Automatic annotation (TrEMBL):
InterPro entries named among the record's database cross-references: Aldolase-II_Adducin_sf, Aldolase_II/adducin_N, Aldolase_II/adducin_N_sf
SUPFAM superfamilies on file: AraD/HMP-PK domain-like
Name of the protein: Aldolase
UniProt similarity note: Belongs to the aldolase class II family.
Record PANTHER family: ADDUCIN (PTHR10672), PROTEIN HU-LI TAI SHAO (PTHR10672:SF3)
Gene3D superfamilies recorded: Class II aldolase/adducin N-terminal domain (3.40.225.10)
Pfam families: Aldolase_II
UniProt superkingdom: Bacteria
Class II aldolase/adducin N-terminal domain sequence ranges: 61-243
Length: 293
């Protein structure tokens, strides 16, 4: 296929990464209580795209930033870890990080585009087999899922060994209340056969997160790669907090179901996940300009 990745300015140079920040005006529709009611203030705005090419470039830039954010938070483990985002024009294709490239070294030029059969259709790097089996199955079965994240992390892997859902013991943990699932299918087995991916994908359901028993954490978003990436970082942290609390031997006080649902609806939705990622992105733009090479 032709190169669907390139976006150029009139001068023929790569277009710069756009900031998500702009001044809120009277025409902006508020979708969250966190958006300021006062007009004229700088606040991150979800971008609107005129073409598939613009949206593709945006998704690829944020995918690279998500990989860099995983490196920033120490979520790497050798070549393990897969982040994917669906192509806006060709929904049966998805962009992902290259095999055996550290999260901190992922950039626009080494991203790969793959199909649901595990074939690389654009890019020069190989595709991680386990990443293909699981992510391709989820993207193919759940057409509404735009992005997905998985990594072999310390606290998430430890918590996954328990085969339990997280408890709503904090406001942060409440965002996953009734919005994550424990998947026991193929628990602990390396996902290299297509059948494994299908069973995991079926169990994922409409949740934004999953704990794969004896394996680790997954997050998915119907909104953006930024949303999926932030909730993965948050999920890993919630696992860490619950392990620390349980290590005290003192039974924690639970957030009530009603309050947990209220917190999830107000600070656990896709917009908030996207919003949380914006300061991470802005920091990376300043500190890691090679992302867009």
């Amino acid at each position: 296929m032709t190169d669907v990745a390139d976006r150029r300015t009139d001068a023929g140079q790569p277009a710069p990464a756009a900031s998500a920040f702009s001044a809120l005006d009277a025409n902006d529709k508020r979708v969250s209580v966190y958006q300021p009611e006062q007009q004229g203030l700088k606040f991150p705005q979800v971008p609107v795209f005129a073409t598939h090419a613009e949206e593709r470039q945006h998704r690829k830039e944020r995918l690279v930033a998500a990989c860099r954010a995983f490196a920033l938070h120490g979520l790497d483990y050798g070549f393990a870890g897969h982040l994917t985002v669906r192509d806006p024009e060709f929904p049966d294709l998805y962009w992902t990080n290259p095999m055996a490239v550290h999260f901190s070294q992922v950039k626009l030029s080494n991203l790969i585009l793959a199909n649901h059969k595990g074939q690389v259709v654009q890019g020069t790097y190989a595709l991680n087999r386990a990443g293909f089996v699981l992510h391709a199955a989820v993207h193919e079965m759940h057409q509404d899922i735009v992005a997905m994240c998985h990594a072999h992390t310390v606290y998430g892997t430890a918590w996954a060994a328990l085969g339990r859902q997280l408890d709503p013991i904090t406001q942060d943990a409440a965002v996953f209340f009734e919005d994550h699932v424990v998947i026991t299918a193929e628990a602990g087995a390396v996902a290299v056969k297509a059948e494994v991916g299908k069973s995991v994908a079926a169990a994922f359901g409409k949740n934004k997160a999953a704990i794969h028993q004896n394996h680790g954490l997954f997050t998915a978003s119907r909104h953006s790669i930024e949303d999926a990436a932030f909730w993965f970082i948050a999920l890993e942290r919630c696992c860490q907090v619950q392990l620390m609390v349980e290590a005290t031997g003192i039974k924690p006080t639970m957030v009530s179901p009603e309050r947990a649902r209220y917190s999830r609806e107000n600070v656990g939705n896709s917009f908030i996940g996207w919003l949380h990622f914006q300061p991470i992105y802005e920091q990376l733009v300043q500190t890691s300009p090679d992302m867009f090479d």
